[in-house]
Amino acid sequence: MGRKGKRKKPKSSAHKPLKSAEKSAQNSPQNGGPNLEKKPTKARLVVTHSTYIPGLIPLLEKLANCPEIQTITPAVISRVKSNSPTFRLKVSVPIMGGHKLIARQRKSAQEVFVITHWSKEELEQAITRHLR
User: Fold this and answer.
1) Which of 69, 74, 77, 78 is nearest to 57 (CA)?
2) Which of 10, 24, 73, 87 could connect to 46 by a Cys-Cys bridge, CB 3.0–4.6 Å?
3) Is residue 20 included in any domain, yes or no?
């Protein structure tokens, strides 16, 4: 227990600083505040692995500048039997909310997950634009 007579009085809620969630609720358009919501102009590029196919990250950074792409996540890297002498990035299969890509170079392949509302053809066109 503390010292006798030295008990702190509870502070009134009128003097508490607002938490960030409370500030955003106060400034929301529903509460008469300004509309501060902006769509992010650059996608989030998740860089968590220590190993990537050479040339993959610079290309993904270029793709991340497309406003239609929300998130790019490089995933599993594996060894494959066939050889791809040049770097290739191919749209593989649709996933929930986007597409899975396969990056290939030499005897390595790496999965890349892209969250976007683009169709397969639109994503392929964006990739070919940035591969040049």
Assistant:
1) 74
2) 73
3) no
